[in-house]
Structure formats: structure tokens, C-alpha cells
Amino acid sequence: MQDYLARPEVVQTLARAEQVIRWLPNPEPPRLDSIPEGTLYVGVDLGTAYLVLVVLDEGYQPLAGEYQFAQVVRDGLVVDFIGAVDRLREMKERVERRLGVQLTYAASGYPPGVPQAEVRAVANVLEAANLRCTKLVDEPTAANALLGLQNGAIVDVGGGTTGIAILQDGEVVYTADEPTGGTHFSLVVAGANDITFEAAEQMKTNPDEQSRLFPVLRPVMEKVASITARHVSNSKVPIDRLTLVGGTCTYPGMAKVIEEYTGISTSVPYRPVFVTPLGIAMHDREPNLPV
After folding, report:
1. Residue 175 placed within a domain
2. Which domain holds residue 119?
3. Which CATH number goes with the domain that contains 58?
4. Residue of 48, 38, 109 whose CA lies nearest to 77
């Protein structure tokens, strides 16, 4: 069941993304040895927990990018427009220096079910950061641009919401999105340990703490599983495998909890935090051409 995630092209792309997408505040990488040739594709993922900008070459392989912790979106709604624009503009400028190329177009994503007015607000963030928005795509559908599933369900566990896309013969036939994600993990950790939200964010990603925190977080994982199971049932589509994407699903044991709860084989690709941003970039419909 997991062979489809081990396809060399998927593993290679995600491994390359890990190498070239800079985590802020790590040191800024040097400029590329040569200006990239051919078409470039840009994706921007405005998440509840992370803001990601990624650039792909004409073969859809990652060239450069950045991601950082940013609370500018909540449950798919832009709650800090100025902060989102400022951060994205600065990320764009740094990546342009690294590439030696000006970026003018980009695609972006949104959780399924977000009102169209809020979807448009995502595009407005890009436009204000000097990126013409060429495409807006729901996040689980974006993820499948990279994964290439024909049948099954993609469950995108983001910072604020869990989005689901059901696929049949390579087509998305059902989407849904509900609150519950990594932010809820942090709130539970903060309450259980009487610490700040920021400290909880650090604690939940500390490998030395994750085993101790697992029993506290298991109910939140089961909530994600419950959301998934309900929408799989509502879709009326036979599903024999789930694919989890998004940074939250890297928590040790989460895939097993969801598989046990739903009774459906559940897998996580390598570096799932990059799956959706890469898929968004693959939807960029206007090429960025080096000049």
C-alpha cells in the first residue's frame, strides 16, 4: 500500500525540497552558481502555522524557497494581512537574490470550504507582495499534483484545519475541511503543562518530549481521525488508503492512531510539510521566465 509514496520521483522531489527550502531563521544561503534557465513555477502556502514560498524549475524540481513560523492565517482566514504581506515580500526578495531572477507570478492554496471572499484575500496577499496570483487551488488537491494518487483520500493536517480530498481515477470527487490541526496540539500541550503557547510549540516538536506528550495529544489525533472517517463515509466512495500530509502528521504515532481509528491503511510521505507547497507551485499557470 505504501509503494506509491516510495516512487523515486516523489522521494527525489521531497528530498530536494528539504535541501533547498530554507528554514527561517537559518543563515541565508549563497546565490546559485548560475542563473536558472527555462520556466520557473512559484507556490505560496499561507498556512495557520507556516508561511512557505517555493520555486520549481521547468521539470518541477525544487530550486529554492523559504518557510517560517507565522500566525497570519487562522482556519483559512487571513487575520494579519499586513504581517502576511510584509513577510511574504521579504521572503520573495531573499529568494530572488538567491536565484538572480525576479519572480512575478505565483499560485496559492486554501483549505476546502473556505468562503470565496476569504479565498480572494489569499490572492490579495500575493498581489500586495508583488506576485500576480495565477491560480488558487484547494490544498488537498494541490498535494495530489505531487503525489499523483489515482484512488484514495489525502488528509492535509495543517496548523488550524484538517482538509480532505477523495480521489477516484485521479479526479477529486469530494472535498471537506474542519477545524483541528497543529495549533490545537499546541493548545493542549500548553494547558497540560501550564506553559505559554509559544513554549508549547517548541515542546511538541522536541523529540525528547514527544513520547511523554503522546497520551495527552492522542485525543486530538483521534479527532482528526473522526473528521476523516466521517467525510470518507459521507463521500460514499470506497477508500482503502489514506495519505497524510502537512507538518502536523510527522508527530510520531499519529498515522497509527488514524489507521486504528478508521480501519483504513494510512501512510505518510517523506517530509510531508513540503507536499502541499510543492503541489501549489505545480499549479502556477504563468511561467516566471529568467530575464
Report:
1. yes
2. 3-143+275-281
3. 3.30.420.40
4. 48
Nearest to 161 by CA among 144, 180, 176, 187: 180
List Cα–Cα distances, 86 to 1, 48, 49, 71, 97, in angstroms: 43, 16, 16, 13, 17
The arrangement of strands across the sheet holding 50-56 comes to 21-23, 62-69, 50-56, 41-46, 105-110, 132-138
Q: Is position 291 within any domain? A: no
Measure the CA–CA gap between 125 and 129, rounded to whole angstroms: 6
The answer to whether residues 203 and 190 touch, using CB atoms and an 8 Å cutoff, is no
What is the rounded distance in angstroms from the CA atom of residue 35 to the CA atom of residue 192?
Answer: 50
The span from the CA of 140 to the CA of 120, in Å, is: 18
Digit-coded pLDDT (tens) for 148-197 = 999 999 999 999 999 999 999 999 999 999 999 999 999 999 999 999 99
Question: What is the Cα 270 distance to its own chain's centre?
Answer: 13
The three cell numbers of residue 207 are 523529540
Chain segment 219-272, per-residue pLDDT in tens:
999 999 999 999 999 999 999 999 999 999 999 999 999 999 999 999 999 999
Same domain? For 110 and 197 the reply is no
